[in-house]
Amino acid sequence: MSKQPRYPTSSLPHAGTVPNKLQTGGCITVQVGIVRFLISCYLHYTPIPTERVLPRIFILYRRSSVCSVRRSSLMDLLKSVLILSISIFSLRLLVNRHRRGLHLPPGPKGLPIVGNFVEARAVANSNEPPWVTFSKWSHLYGDIFTFQVFGSRTVVLNSYKAIMDLLERRAHNYSDRPSSPMLNELVRWKWLFSLMRYSDWWRLHRRTFHQSFRSRIVPEYYEIQKQRTSLLIQRLVTSPKDFFGHVRAHSGEIILEIVYGYRTQDKIDPYIKLVDVAMEGLNAPGVHGTFMVDFFPILKHVPAWFPGAGFKTKAEVWARNTDRVLDLPWALAKKLMDEGRAVPCFCTRNLEKLPPSGDNSVMDEVIKNCAAIALIAAGETTVSAILSFILAMVLNPQVQTRAQKELDELTGFTRLPEFADRKNLPYIDAVLSETLRWNPVVPLALPHRAVNDDIYEGYLIPKGSTIVPNAWAVLRDESLYGPDTQNFNPDRFLKQDGKSLPPNPELLAFGFGRRVCPGRYLAINSLWLTMTYLLTSYTIAKELDSEGKEIDPVVNYNTPGITSHPHPFPCRFIPRSSAPSFN
């Protein structure tokens, strides 16, 4: 039997061909086609400079006619390795030269070292909401602009096209979240999977949540939503002036029963109050750049008594509230299960799937986190949207009258609307879309992070940049939604001959790409049902002063934090005679 060579291998084929036979030999030499290697890799295999350059090199190396194998000397092998190294180095020089020729998106000119520190602090401390300020900046610098604070780059997207191109079509590069030492570590929101880094841990949370709240599952929750919305209608009869509290209780009660199997005993339930208190610690530090510790993570180690470290004292208070909203409802659900009093809910269904023996601590933590996330999201986003709808009806009685007419014609004013009616109520759907557009719940969508360098519209977006989508600016874009976008006009979303409908605000209201909110189906159902029940049962009107004159409500959405909701405003809920809600 002949002795096998020490290094059996084969000739690499030309791109697109198959080798005819294997060639074996002793020591390996490599003859590299340098010109073809550089030109092909630079022009065809590296459209995004510096992104996965070495993997692309070796893909080309395998596919190209770059080597042949024959018996040779060790010196030839070393020469070939040297040539290959020079080729890789030359390619890197070309890539870096091209990268240096690119520019960041324009933005306010900063100072040496500190960058736009002054501008960032001015935005954080201004009475004007940051989404409005960023919209104004876009008129100066363009739809895409950037600012830097001590080397930390933030790219703000102010157009529908830019948001869709980057966060949807290039979601693979923009599905990560920037780290936030203030939120995740000091205030202990690290269990909130909407803030988690793009990872297997995040995927496990999202998959667990999605399985219980996808579009095919949410019909199971219709009855709970209908019962609790009917209770809201009844409460408005006895104490209409407390409608802010009633709306907040209504949203919390729905999610507490769906998720924890807990039926609230009082309109001011302690578990609902937990959400209100905890949200302060999410909203205040939630807008990127509000606290300097997010730019300088080392500040998290500064003691609370140190001058300028007041954020540590705030964080300690907020963190205790964060722990309570995570732990207390979960302990209640486990107690109800142990006592045999639990009703079917998100927690029981998922816990019952776990094997009776073995270590279930990981999935226990995931289920616990997902339950609290649902409670937090419903307790803030749905409330904001319902209050915006009520304010819009006060300010636009003609819209309210038209919506009531559509409902009455369908139901005959003899019953309350059903979810099955939705397809036959186009104007109601238009009102819902306009509610989400007029004053979005999350005006600055949660920030994303660039995983790798990217080039867009001739601009370089460096790896690690924070990407902030300005949903508010897009939803006020008159080129998309027509004139007078500051006004409430549902006709924007009704089909007109020869005109296409504008982008659905749901696309901008619930996040983008792989980070889109998985609870959006439940949220939309709650908003739709509440709108139709209110319109069927009441006429919502301006409040009257002591002289019987109407009081014009002030539209004020300048609330600090991630979510935006209207400041308290007065109004009247006038029961409609013979409404089916009261029969």
TrEMBL record:
InterPro entries: Cyt_P450, Cyt_P450_CS, Cyt_P450_E_grp-I, Cyt_P450_sf, Cytochrome_P450_fung. Its cofactor is heme. The keyword Heme applies. Pathway: Secondary metabolite biosynthesis. The keyword Iron applies. GO terms for molecular function: heme binding; iron ion binding; monooxygenase activity; oxidoreductase activity, acting on paired donors, with incorporation or reduction of molecular oxygen. Keywords: Heme, Iron, Metal-binding, Monooxygenase, Oxidoreductase. Pfam families: p450. Heme binds at C517. Coiled coil: none annotated. SUPFAM superfamilies: Cytochrome P450. Belongs to the cytochrome P450 family. This is Cytochrome P450. It comes from Marasmius oreades (fairy-ring Marasmius).
